[in-house]
Amino acid sequence: MGDPEVLEMVKEEERRLKRDSSFALEMSESASNRETSCLLSETEEFDKDKQSKDSIFFRDGIRQIDFVLSYVDDIKKEADLKIVRRKNFEENLKKTGLELEIEDKRNSEDGRTYFVKIHAPWEVLVTYAEVLGMKKPIKENDIPRPQKAPFNFILGPLKLPKNVMHPKPEYFTVQFTRHRQELFLIEDKSSFFPSSARNRIVYYILSRCPFGIEDGKKKFGIERLLNSHAYSAAYPLHDGQYWKPSEPPNTTNERYILFQNWARFSYFYKEQPFDLIKNYFGEKIGMYFVFLGFYTEMLVLAAIVGLACFGYGLFSMHGSTTSIEVCDPEIGGQIIMCPLCDLLCDFWRLNSTCLSSKVSHLFDNESTVFFAIFMGIWVTLFLEFWKQHQARLEYEWDLVDFEEEQQQLQLRPEFEAMCKKKKLNPVTQELEPHMPLKNRVPWYFLSGATVTLWMSLVIACLVAVIVYRLSVFATFSRFMESEASLKHVKSFLTPQIATALSGSCLNFIVILILNFFYEKLSAWITKMEIPRTYQEYESSLTLKMFLFQFVNFYSSCFYLAFFKGKFVGYPGKYTYLFGVWRSEECDPGGCLIELTTQMTIIMTGKQIFGNIQEAIYPFALNWWRRRKARTNSEKLYSRWEQDHDLEPFGSLGLFYEYLETVIQFGFVTLFVASFPLAPVLALLNNIMEIRVDAWKLTTQYRRPVASKAHSIGVWQDILHAMAVLSVASNAFIVAFASDIIPRLVYTYAYSTDPSDPLKGYVNNSLSIFLIADLPNTTAPLDTRDFSTCRYRDYRFPPGHIDKYCHNMQFWHVLAAKMTFIIVMEHIVFLVKFFLAWMIPDVPKDVLDRIRQERIMAVKILHDFELKKLKENLTMDPTLLAKEFIVQENKV
């Protein structure tokens, strides 16, 4: 960096900063010119101790701070280049009309950070409001809100005050244009654009403002400056302290109102102030909380039905014929079961699984089928009603005419910087940066290979956990048999249960580790693909992350539901994994209890770990920043410094929130037949999740830049796909993991006791094996005085001509299982399609209100233009008529 011109610019910048800093310490006797006021206020002496610590205004107390940039002194090699970039960037910001004010590092608490405060004057706001297509209210056209429901008083304790739920009246709105300002309801220019709209406009300018030409390419955008560390942070300010209301002359402190009525855990039972959330954080974040709240409300019904099914299992547990026979010393105590592993495992009596048989009945009973069918219908109702709710929200939040294409046309600065060629856009008919496909194909191949490799790694880890379970099962069995001190433990902790619990915990730990590394890797790979727009970037990352987490979280559940115990073989001819480890067998009560255990540990563990991480991680980082800033209290330094020391929310902060919710939705729907308490756990978690997210956004994170979204985006398609898959998965779980179908077949085809159809079912479901037929490589080392043992299957006994082959009952049960799957899927899908046809995506009253508002808006614009023509045009009737026709066509 020995270029004389660059060095001269650096020296000039240093002289300017010194001059401005010393000038800020003197009393200004009179007003100076407008240009120098962009750096330091010259209308009054600045005394940091006298200025309010919560001020969100420039030093003149009039101009509101809409955005803040920060940077620190850099003594590294590229310090001079960063100074030049900042200088060019700030000069170009001024050319767009923005006003800047710089806080010298001597005025900062840490003594090393500069703060560039940005204000957007009225002219800039109205110009870019028109560019962004913002809708604003028209004069004297308020919309009456719907009347309260007749029995709304019952829900009174759940309601928030009206001024919190609806802080502003509703109006007819039209797209803002600066040439028709008289048409709009502009009572006060300082409050016409809310702070969320102001920071959205400023960020739009920042993301497109150039800062120089380097290597023959035009460089622009605040994101590139942040990535190159020319600036350390860029963020809009919070309204004030979250624990106290603002004092005059500050504007209304919406942050305080949100904290008092939304972000407190004691308000977990209250409704959410969605309009206020939207006004403060923007429509995109508001849409997430609306979706999470609606999903939580719908979970209430599923949780009630799930609790009812669990209660049925609980009250019928002790009267279950199957459990009674297993626990009966005269029946289950006399049934000798074959060893569950080779050599080390001994023969065992069936009544040793008495407790697991009773617990299995909690989740594997007659209500299981009903609940599986109910959840298939519930998920359809949830998605269809959400479409309606989303359509109503689009109307209320002025998002009806908002199109995603507006965002798709906005290119990522990184994409533009990497492009050397340009191509005509067929939509805009303008030349835009273009990257040939051949330049991106290698990265697509690398991305696909990486995703495949990591998904294969998940499968490999699952196999490793299976091998662990197979290896330690024999150890648990031998240890628990040899230890006399474990006599009381054996009554409730069998080797099967101990293996299942330890295997599930190990699998959960592996899931968390893999998930941590893959999040970093997938973000890097997506950036290397050089997506064209922000939406393409997020869609690509969504696909990678969802595919991985789907396999990561659900693979073990799919294994237990559809594979474990299905290819075991029989004594003397077992199947082996890699020719070494014998395949796992299910408990005599079925594999459903193990699937339930796995679901409970993974789902509960993920939710607890996620909530703790979301709450503690930003809190700890913020505490450390304040500690490094030599203060432990936010009361000691300015508003922009307080927000600077908060954790940034990030452009993907909302992405991970949606991903977490969708993965939970999978647990609630895909495997709910095995665990009717899943909706209950999800409901409790979401009640806490809403307040944790609200608390961290309001208190622990910098204020995110407001952005628009008219839906939950690609997540809605993912939810629909999972809803369809859940019908098939639950049907297969009931058929193959549950013991319902074999019991029904025995009841109607093989039972001999009309008074108790299930009597004798346990003995009927166990086949006989001659111990003498056991190979020496698998038989236990100890000798026994019995000649046969039992195993779970439907095979012919030793004396039969087709001994150990499947008998006719096996084929009857298999046919019944396949019939059940077909019948259940058809019933549920028919109901789903019928409900989807019956429930319109957009409610009729919303369609009527949209049409009414459009007609009213056109009429108002027509009358406005007509009045304007009559007032301003003084010409002959013929010319007036022609001008009127032109204006009418424009309207």
Automatic annotation (TrEMBL):
<feature type="transmembrane region" description="Helical">
    <location>
        <begin position="497"/>
        <end position="518"/>
    </location>
</feature>
<protein>
    <recommendedName>
        <fullName>Anoctamin</fullName>
    </recommendedName>
</protein>
<dbReference type="GO" id="GO:0046983">
    <property type="term" value="F:protein dimerization activity"/>
</dbReference>
<dbReference type="InterPro" id="IPR007632">
    <property type="entry name" value="Anoctamin"/>
</dbReference>
<keyword id="KW-0812">Transmembrane</keyword>
<dbReference type="GO" id="GO:0005254">
    <property type="term" value="F:chloride channel activity"/>
</dbReference>
<feature type="transmembrane region" description="Helical">
    <location>
        <begin position="288"/>
        <end position="315"/>
    </location>
</feature>
<dbReference type="InterPro" id="IPR049452">
    <property type="entry name" value="Anoctamin_TM"/>
</dbReference>
<dbReference type="Pfam" id="PF04547">
    <property type="entry name" value="Anoctamin"/>
</dbReference>
<keyword id="KW-1003">Cell membrane</keyword>
<keyword id="KW-1133">Transmembrane helix</keyword>
<feature type="domain" description="Anoctamin dimerisation">
    <location>
        <begin position="57"/>
        <end position="273"/>
    </location>
</feature>
<feature type="transmembrane region" description="Helical">
    <location>
        <begin position="443"/>
        <end position="468"/>
    </location>
</feature>
<dbReference type="InterPro" id="IPR032394">
    <property type="entry name" value="Anoct_dimer"/>
</dbReference>
<dbReference type="GO" id="GO:0005886">
    <property type="term" value="C:plasma membrane"/>
</dbReference>
<keyword id="KW-0472">Membrane</keyword>
<dbReference type="Pfam" id="PF16178">
    <property type="entry name" value="Anoct_dimer"/>
</dbReference>
<keyword id="KW-0325">Glycoprotein</keyword>
<feature type="transmembrane region" description="Helical">
    <location>
        <begin position="368"/>
        <end position="386"/>
    </location>
</feature>
<comment type="similarity">
    <text>Belongs to the anoctamin family.</text>
</comment>
<feature type="transmembrane region" description="Helical">
    <location>
        <begin position="662"/>
        <end position="684"/>
    </location>
</feature>
<feature type="transmembrane region" description="Helical">
    <location>
        <begin position="541"/>
        <end position="562"/>
    </location>
</feature>
<feature type="transmembrane region" description="Helical">
    <location>
        <begin position="818"/>
        <end position="839"/>
    </location>
</feature>
<feature type="domain" description="Anoctamin transmembrane">
    <location>
        <begin position="277"/>
        <end position="853"/>
    </location>
</feature>
